[in-house]
Design goal:
Largest sheet: 2 strands, parallel
Number of domains: 1
Radius of gyration: 14 Å
Oligomer: single chain
Mean pLDDT: 87
Distance between the termini: 13 Å
Structural class: mainly alpha
Order of helices and strands: HHHEHHE
């Protein structure tokens, strides 16, 4: 089973721009895919498990950057958290005064809604 380690937060002393976030999301997606390829369960749900673990961790720390990064990564993979979790993420990110993070979460919510009832969702694991 894949372990759940955190992602690296922006630590250069400024708010991330939309371009910064895109670079972080792309790197995160590569990491998630690499971890999923090495998953020992090989049941086809490795990406969902990894996203679930990362999002649970981000919500636990209440880090707006981490939450937005995981949501953006999931959206790139066309996966979205359950609606109640997405609402919780939105509330946590809106407390931060960071335009790029709020915009990213808005874009994820919009993409989730446009996907309709057939959008792929994942739940947060209860570890």
């Amino acid at each position: 089973m894949t372990t759940c380690s955190g992602t690296k937060a922006a630590s250069w002393g400024r708010q991330p721009s939309a371009t910064d976030m895109l670079h972080f999301i792309r790197a995160s997606v590569r990491s998630i895919r690499r971890d999923a390829a090495n998953d020992l369960q090989a049941d086809g749900a490795a990406i969902e498990r990894r996203l679930s673990c990362l999002l649970r961790q981000a919500l636990t720390t209440r880090s707006p950057f981490e939450i937005a990064l995981v949501l953006g990564s999931a959206a790139e993979l066309m996966l979205f958290p359950e609606q109640d979790v997405l609402e919780q993420c939105t509330a946590a990110v809106q407390t931060a005064n960071q335009q790029a993070l709020r915009g990213l979460v808005w874009a994820v919510r919009h993409r989730s809604i446009r996907g309709g009832p057939n959008v792929r969702r994942f739940a947060i694991d209860a570890h």
